Amino acid sequence: MYLHLGQDTVITFEEILGIFDLDATTVSKATRDYLANATKTGRVVNVSMDLPKSFVVCRNSDGGTTVYISPISPSTLLKRSKNTLSNR
Q1: Given CA atoms 37, 39, 44, 49 in this order, what sign does their dihedral have?
Q2: Where are the domains of the chain?
Q3: Ramachandran sector of residue 10 (left: φ over 0; alpha: ψ -120 to 50; beta: rest)
Q4: Residue 13 DSSP symbol
Q5: Distance from C-alpha of 51 to C-alpha of 64, rounded to nearest angstrom
Q6: Kind of pairing, strands 54-59 and 16-21?
Q7: What is the pTM of this model?
């Protein structure tokens, strides 16, 4: 199954490691450091032309991770995933 993150970006549920609220989690220095490191190493994909609301950490086929910055709130992403799974 697939989850739409914004613009033309779609990921599979199997890739998702976590969905996080950007405002709530960036209060922590550890999260800010993680996002800064991911940006520095080129692992961040910004799919938000608007104000970003969430970030989604995904596992790559090579074992690494990619962080997607999304304009969609974590609660909406969760609802989309539940709707998709219930329609199976």
Answers
A1: positive
A2: 2-86
A3: beta
A4: G
A5: 26
A6: antiparallel
A7: 0.90
